[in-house]
Automatic annotation (TrEMBL):
Organism: Oryzias latipes (Japanese rice fish)
Domain of life per record: Eukaryota
Identification of the protein by name: Spermatogenesis associated 20
Domain Spermatogenesis-associated protein 20-like TRX, residue spans: 80-241
UniProt-listed Gene3D superfamilies: 1.50.10.10, Glutaredoxin (3.40.30.10)
Length: 778
């Protein structure tokens, strides 16, 4: 749900000249977005707006870019380029480089054509660690700036603003280098065709590895003396990519069989599963919600089998290890009871507190790098969240009553969280040596084992750890905060809307549901152009805490529509407010008109009419966030049940277009596999008839949300025959409250069970539905 950014592909060699240049120099790391550093933090109840915003949230973009670049001086800058007029925090981080940067756009394209120069395209995002490194090492370098300005037209791109551009050139880099990452460095002809690409480059040569200046010198030489070969080689690769990335359904083709695809996806995930710490594949691991959601869905459809139980164990163990590990901010963690619910609320509290704009929207990210509290102005990765043993001993000196000897609160805390005297970060995890002697807090023992180790009561340990976390949280407030990217994206706000709506519904938390409604209203007010019927990609926090847009605004992409539609459907099911369902249908119609491939099936990632985008791609991998086509396959099916307009064939044609990937490597599309499974099992319709705010309606709604039922839609009928749903679904006219109290029906294709009014009876009906699915499978 929150999470977010990691990618793929294969290698291909070019002709001798490009091989000598090495089209894939450099190496980069993709950084996880929206918090792979520390999650839950300094607690404030969700929805509490009485406290003032932290100081970092009151700074203007001009101040924020100085912080992001590691400087705090307000003195005049030696250099200022066009990026100073931009709103993107990432572009502003480069506004005072000696490089004459242009934003992506026709001004830069025309300059390249007029001066007949190649384009140097540098792509990244504001919380990317290696982007910071390259900016500091190379783009602040006067010599590098002179070379770039003399021989290239330089474009800096925020990949979060323009994922369409990023996808095209990342596909090229991955195809020619065997991998990719950010910062991404690509050299283009004046007509935007790539001919050489790479990722991070060190500023100077390092052994056999060429530095950035050497790379630039070789490219200049080849452009001047061997240009036809460079251009023809790049053109050949681009032509091959156009063919190789085509995803289309053959005429009359059906999707593969769901049970076969689901079983293969499970087997592939099980093969890559890591037993000890959970997760998939080797380190570094990143949260992959799509994998976990598939495993829980696979368990639901196979819960009586050993494979189903194994799928559930894989999912829950991975979640537990994430909750216990360094990815979760333990310095303000809620109680250890109801672990999964507590951690979910913990994450949403962090998002509400630290990534929330007063308009109701959510910011994009908080950086992994910050100025260390232990001294120095150079930012270091993880500095905000780590601790030395001596710090903890100084902060927690009290002797623990009831323990043997002179055990201190620090001893108990350090034992429980794996704190070592010389630090617990290995050199392999710390390539720059920035965290030597420091510790990432990781729960190593249960509270019961910690209590037994020190010979004190469990209650004492819980009290001790709670007070220790509060003490560290208070001290950490004085540390320099990481840079905050105050860009607000429609797609990520849509994902976050889903998170708040789903968790709020399951836990019956009104504050979370109110926050979900706030973000929905933010999306409609600030990122929906009602005149042009168009979602906008992004908006930005202004100097006076207002919401601002760039001119012209960036039109929304496929993921903006798909994720917002999904969020609105989730919000409707959580709040029963029909307005969100109506808007979701309107957005689906716009998505169809803008991005649908009517012949080949599925949706293009961006507007196919944009001639500056050289590849018309359909995202074919669920990663840190699900692909928009995977989400759309489910949206279409859900909307069919909600509105009565049959979109199932559009969904099936989408799935058919991805048949090859679903058949061969379903592990790459676990969210799409879930959509395929939903078609196979069909959706259960839960219809609740009653008064929206009545207690008996709420009780039935809570019963419906309390059971994990992955293939369902929840429909509310208030008795008004003129309501949106009754007009769309005439079958609802025959459903009513039985004898006065709120009444529930459980249906499939509106063939319904007998009505029930007792929440426990509804729960049993839903459990019976689950059992029926298993009998069908077995």
């Amino acid at each position: 749900m929150l999470a977010l950014a990691w990618r793929r592909f294969t290698r291909k060699h070019g002709p001798v000249e490009r091989a000598r240049l090495s089209t894939c120099w450099g190496s980069g790391r993709s950084q996880h977005r929206w918090s792979s550093r520390c999650f839950a933090g300094r607690l404030r109840p969700p929805g509490d707006r009485s406290l003032p915003l932290p100081p970092a949230l009151r700074l203007s973009p001009s101040v924020l870019w100085r912080m992001a670049s590691g400087g705090g001086s307000s003195s005049p800058h030696k250099h200022t380029n066009r990026l100073a007029r931009e709103k993107s925090p990432y572009l502003l981080q480069h506004a005072h480089n000696p490089v004459d940067w242009y934003p992506w756009g026709h001004e830069a394209f025309e300059k390249a054509k007029t001066e007949d120069k190649p384009i140097f395209l540098s792509v990244g995002y504001s919380t990317c660690h290696w982007c910071h490194v390259m900016e500091r090492e190379s783009f602040q370098d006067e010599d590098v700036g002179k070379i770039l300005n003399q021989h290239f037209v330089c474009i800096k791109l925020d990949r979060e603003e323009r994922p369409d551009v990023d996808k095209v050139y990342m596909t090229f880099v991955q195809a020619t280098c065997g991998g990719g990452g950010w910062p991404m460095s690509v050299w283009l002809t004046p007509d935007l065709r790539p001919f050489i690409g790479g990722t991070y480059f060190p500023p100077r040569d390092q052994g056999r590895r060429p530095g950035f200046i050497t790379v630039l010198t070789r490219i200049i030489d080849q452009w001047q003396n061997n240009r036809p070969s460079l251009e023809s080689g790049g053109e050949k690769i681009l032509s091959a990519l156009k063919k190789g990335t085509s995803i289309t359904a053959n005429g009359g083709e059906s999707p593969p069989l769901a049970p076969d695809v689901a079983n293969r996806c499970f087997q592939q995930l099980a093969h890559s599963y890591e037993d000890e710490y959970g997760g998939f594949r080797e380190a570094p691991k990143f949260p992959s919600p799509v994998n976990l959601m598939f495993l829980m869905t696979f368990w639901w459809t196979n819960r009586s089998t050993s494979e189903g139980l194994e799928a559930l164990q894989m999912a829950t163990h991975t979640l537990r290890m994430m909750a216990l590990g360094g990815i979760h901010d333990h310095v303000a963690q809620v109680s250890g009871e109801r672990l999964f619910a507590d951690v979910a609320k913990d994450v949403l509290q962090y998002v509400s507190r630290d990534l929330s704009d007063q308009s109701g929207g959510f910011y994009s990210a908080e950086d992994a790098d910050s100025v260390p509290a232990w001294g120095g102005q150079r930012k270091q990765e993880g500095a905000f969240c780590v601790w030395t043993a001596s710090e903890i001993r100084e902060l927690l000196p009290a002797v623990v009553g009831g323990s043997s000897g002179t055990t201190t609160q620090a001893d108990v805390f350090m034992h429980h969280y794996g704190v070592k005297e010389h630090g617990n970060v290995t050199p392999e995890q710390d390539p720059h040596g920035e965290l030597q002697g420091h510790n990432v807090l990781i729960i190593r023992y249960s509270q019961e084992l910690t209590a037994a180790h020190f010979g004190v009561s469990l209650e004492k340990v819980v009290e001790l750890l709670t007070s220790a976390r509060a003490r560290l949280a208070e001290v950490r407030k004085a540390r320099p905060r990481p840079h905050l990217d105050t860009k607000m994206l429609a797609s990520w706000n849509g994902l976050t809307l889903s998170a708040f709506a789903r968790v709020g519904a399951v836990l019956g938390d009104k504050a979370l549901l109110e926050r979900a409604e706030r973000v929905a209203r933010f999306l409609k007010e600030h990122l929906w152009d009602a005149e042009r019927l168009m979602i906008l990609r992004s908006c930005y926090r202004g100097d006076h805490m207002d919401v601002q847009h760039i001119s012209p605004p960036i039109a929304g992409f496929l993921d903006d529509y798909a994720f917002v539609i999904c969020g609105l459907l989730d919000l409707y099911e959580a709040t029963l407010q029909t307005e969100w369902l109506v808007w979701a249908e309107e957005l689906q119609l716009r998505q169809d008109s803008l991005f649908q491939d009517e012949q080949g099936g599925g949706y293009f990632c961006s507007d196919p009419k944009d001639d500056t985008i050289l590849l018309q791609l359909k995202e074919d991998q669920d990663g840190a966030e699900p692909s928009a086509n995977s989400v759309s396959a489910s949206n279409l099916l859900r909307l069919s049940s909600f509105t009565g307009q049959d979109r199932t064939q559009t969904s099936l044609k989408l799935l058919a277009a991805f048949s090859k990937k679903l058949t061969q490597v379903p592990i790459s599309l676990p969210e799409m596999v879930r959509a395929l499974m939903a078609h196979h099992h069909t959706l259960t319709q839960i219809v609740i008839c009653g008064q929206k705010d009545a207690a008996d309606t709420a009780a039935l709604l809570a019963a419906a949300h309390a059971i994990f039922l992955p293939f369902k839609v929840l429909i509310f009928v208030d008795g008004d025959p003129q309501s949106f749903l009754c007009q769309r679904l005439p079958a609802l006219m025959s459903m009513s409250q039985q004898g006065g109290p709120a009444t529930a029906y459980v249906c499939q294709d509106f063939r319904c069970s007998l009505p029930v009014t007792d929440p426990q009876e509804l729960r049993q009906l839903l459990l019976d539905r689950t059992a029926a699915v298993h009998q069908t499978i077995n």
